[in-house]
Specification:
Rossmann fold; Molybdenum Cofactor Biosythetic Enzyme, Chain A; 14 helices
Length: 424
């Protein structure tokens, strides 16, 4: 397959919802974006300015994450991508061994570049970086709900320290005063850091204006690493401006459903809001799944007569204590994988029952669901809430479907109902 001559930006995301979050910001800034599920095995369905390759590499072994990321890089380079972007979560979460640092350094080596930046700042979703420390809203990352994340608990807010522990290269800082002074000052600071042997620099950002000042300084950088926030500033480097046409999707039809596997505070609130508004909802019991009960079949039997009446919600969302109790019985990894498999089976069954508008909450759950549906590419459409757009895809069986893949921590309390209203 020949490379796309107009592919401007090649992106590698370490989870599925994060990929959509990044694609959403690029679309808002004027890029036509296709998201692929894994490294593509076939040509793109549609022309694009940017391609986001969605991996599920955040919590796997570092060597495996590197292998997958380098495969994505090779494919994107083969399509003629002019600049590369490695996207991780706006809460910078990973295991103690990585994978942000190891993947970043492997990509730098492959691109033969000695410097890149790193910033998870996403002010639209209350993620800011000040003096190298990551804030979630008004609290430090280490004081936020992320300290209790079941897979990637974050107990240190100092990003220079967190990243240095994962890297062989020296990690430095471009602080808020430099960023406030504009692109020329940032470029000068980068030169100083490189002269001092720094290979990766954390960048402060308190608002979107900081990201927009940072953008021009990244124009000639072979590799950018960041959350999705910086994406708002990159399309302008290619002469693009915001356009409604970039977000246009085919019209939606069919029935509506939500599948939720996230245990985040935000998703817990969204589940409660949906139920309190009169929505039909079914909670799954992980211990019944572990016992071998036919939970998927029972959930689909429950949903079948209700789908025609309005959106249905199937969820395993629970509070921290409930999650820990299940993990204590089954082990952390097996508990998570078991629930993901069940929710993915249910998502596939809901689509077979006629659901054509599907919201999935949780990064790991989203990955499992799109794989179960056989979705390989998604066209990115309009934003529902910061970081979460509607997408259009086809299942392995050829069914057209609108998908919203929501990171656990994202979205307003009424996200589930608001998402479907947007497609009406």
């Amino acid at each position: 397959m020949m490379g796309q001559p107009n592919l401007l930006l090649g992106c590698i995301a370490d989870d599925f919802t994060g990929a959509t979050d990044l694609a959403n910001n690029l679309v808002r800034s004027g890029m036509r974006v296709v998201q692929t599920i894994g490294v593509p095995q076939a040509p793109l369905d549609t022309a694009a300015d940017a391609v986001v390759v969605a991996l599920k590499s955040r919590t796997i072994a570092p060597a495996e994450a590197i292998e997958q990321s380098l495969a994505a890089l090779q494919w994107l380079r083969g399509q003629g991508a002019q600049q590369m972007y490695f996207k991780y979560c706006s809460t910078f979460d990973s295991t103690a061994q990585g994978n942000i640092g190891p993947v970043t350094e492997a990509l730098m080596d492959a691109l033969n570049t000695d410097f890149t930046i790193a910033t998870p700042a996403f002010p639209d979703n209350q993620r800011t970086v000040f003096k190298g420390h990551l804030f979630v809203g008004d609290v430090l990352l280490s004081d936020s709900g992320m300290r209790n994340h079941p897979l990637t608990p974050m107990t240190d807010s100092n990003l220079v320290r967190v990243l240095q522990a994962q890297c062989g290269r020296k990690v430095g800082l471009i602080d808020y005063r430099t960023v406030a002074a504009g692109a020329q000052a940032i470029t000068q600071r980068i030169a100083e850091l490189r002269a001092d042997g720094v290979g990766i620099a954390i960048v402060d950002a308190l608002g979107n204006d900081d990201l927009l000042r940072l953008g021009p300084a990244l124009k000639s950088m072979p590799l950018v690493t960041a959350g999705s926030g910086v994406a708002i500033a990159l399309p302008a480097n290619f002469g693009l401006t915001p356009s409604a046409a970039a977000a246009q999707l085919p019209p939606a039809g069919g029935m509506c459903a939500v599948v939720s596997g996230s245990c985040s505070v935000a998703t817990n609130r969204q589940v409660l809001d949906f139920i309190s508004a009169g929505g039909q909802a079914l909670a799954l019991d992980p211990l019944r799944i572990a016992a071998g009960d036919r939970v998927s079949e029972q959930a689909l039997a429950w949903a079948r007569p209700l789908l025609a009446q309005g959106p249905v919600l199937v969820y395993s969302t629970a509070d921290v204590q409930a999650v820990k109790a299940v993990q204590g019985r089954l082990g952390v990894e097996e508990a998570g994988a078991m629930v993901e498999r069940t929710l993915a089976d249910i998502a596939r069954g809901l689509v077979e029952l006629g659901a054509r508008q599907l919201v999935v909450a949780g990064g790991e759950t989203s990955g499992a669901c799109v794989q179960a549906l056989g979705v390989s590419q998604m066209q990115i459409g309009p934003q529902i809430d910061p970081g979460v757009p509607w997408c259009h895809a086809r299942t392995a069986a050829g069914a057209p479907i609108h998908l919203a893949l929501k990171s656990g921590n994202f979205g307003s309390d009424d996200f589930f109902t608001k998402a479907f209203r947007m497609l009406e």
